[in-house]
Specification:
This protein is mainly β. Helix content is about 0%, strand content about 70%. It has one domain: Sandwich (ATP Synthase, domain 1), CATH 2.60.15.10. The radius of gyration is 11 Å and the shape is globular.
């Protein structure tokens, strides 16, 4: 699946990933390939990405919004 993490200043990440864990406002949650469509708000915390090389990449955010549809995740982060 494709992940894009965008802030008002720049694009932090864009690429193929196998899983992503998010700091949701109601608790942490993960997204895998073929996940049902979802829109959720994010709290301050860390987004943990497992990329196509099976490496973990962390991004600290101050909140934001995630949308997943058709194996494409867009994160608008602060």
């Amino acid at each position: 699946m494709i992940l894009e993490i965008i802030t008002p200043e720049s694009e932090l990440f864009k690429g193929e990933v196998t899983s992503v864990k998010f700091p949701g406002t109601d608790g942490k949650f993960g997204v895998l390939n073929n996940h049902a469509p979802i829109i959720s708000t994010l709290a301050k915390g860390t987004i943990t990405v497992v990329d196509s090389n099976n490496e973990n990449i962390n991004f600290d955010i101050n909140g934001g919004v995630i949308e997943m549809q058709n194996n494409k995740i867009i994160v608008l982060a602060e």
